[in-house]
Amino acid sequence: YVGYGDAAIAAFPNGTLIATAIHGYGLSGNSSTTTPTDVVWKCSYDNGKTWTKQHTLDHSLFGNLRGCISPGSICVAEGGAIGGKAIAALRTSTGVNTGATASASRNRVYLLTYNPATNTWTNLKDASGNILYVDNASGDYDEAHLAQVADNTFVLSIRSYLSSDSYRAFKYVTLSDDGTTATVSVAAKSGMTLANGCNGDMMTYSAKNGDYLMHTVPKDMVYNGDNCRTSLAFYYATKAASGTIAWTRSLTLSDPHDNTNGGAAATGIGAVNESAQYSSITEQKDHTIGMLYEGYPLAVRHKDNVTTTYGSHWGDWVMAQYYLN
């Protein structure tokens, strides 16, 4: 499809699949401000063989702003108040959607639930009945991911542009017993200090020795200030519904320098010796973990005399997609 991006997909226990995307303004060269930014979705009831017509999310559900549900941002609840349904993080910019009146001084992350039985989306509300969103007056938030850590508690991982967050903010989202309202509290973290903000993914995993949160995110930047992330790393933490999330970096999966900053330099610990950015992870039926991520092929990864513009020397616009299991 022309003019679509930032796709997300989720599967439900009743057999329904849902696929969302952003459509309209800013995509495929469509820069007219009279074009709305739509969040659209389709459903499949036969494991992806056929899909329904396209539906469009009402702009009022995300404050009449421009935004999208990012890849990996839909979490299907396994139990609790919204068991069998989903909770999704929809991030917005400060841009006002076409034909609307709105105001936002910072990017926001709206929290919505989806019911596959009725094919409907609903805003979570705060205790006062207001539409719930997460923001920070000191800086912008961006893509966000959710993982269920208790019946009515989810961890929200947010790409942050704040150094005080080490560029990744975490929150606990606790739902009411009826699943209509929620409270959001800060989740302290340790062990995940990043060089800049970037997208990643988060999931829960049950191992023989306990239950864990797992997270992928690039930890470094080429030349520090350049906007080309590198050293895509895998982190884990003990799954809990409260307290500090203590992350441990278990493996650097893709590192152009073969230097893990925690292991021996030049040992080739990285699975792929190249730069990498966005990633998506999921548990397979055999309980292995599959990861799809974007990387920059060795053939275009050349260093020249330009040291200020990432597009000139690290092939930031030439990508490959890798799958690891």
Helix-strand pattern, N to C? Answer: EEEEEEEEEEEEEEEEEEEEEHE
What's the count of strands?
A: 22
Helix content: under 10%
Distance between the termini: 29 Å
Structure annotation, total helices: 1
**What's the Cα radius of gyration?**
20 Å
The biggest sheet, with number of strands, parallel, antiparallel or mixed sense and barrel status, is:
5 strands, antiparallel
What is the average per-residue confidence, as pLDDT, rounded to a whole number?
86
Determine the structural class based on helices, strands and strand pairing: mainly beta
| Range of strand content | over 45%
- Give the oligomeric state of the chains in this entry, treating copies of one chain as homo and distinct chains as hetero: single chain
Uncertain parts: 260-268, 299-316
Shape, please? Answer: globular
Brief characterization of the structure:
The protein is built from 1 helix and 22 strands. By secondary structure, the chain is mainly beta.
If you had to describe this structure to a student in words, what would you say it looks like?
The protein has 325 residues and is an all-beta fold. It is 1% helix and 48% strand. The protein contains one helix and 22 strands. It has one helix at 310-313, and strands spanning 4-11, 17-24, 37-44, 55-56, 65-76, 86-96, 108-115, 120-123, 133-134, 141-150, 153-160, 168-175, 182-186, 189-190, 201-207, 210-221, 229-238, 245-246, 248-254, 275-283, 289-296, 320-324. Strands 5, 6, 7, 8 and 9 form a five-stranded antiparallel beta sheet that branches. A hairpin with a 2-residue loop joins strand 10 and strand 11. Mean pLDDT is 86; it is low at 260-268 and 299-316.
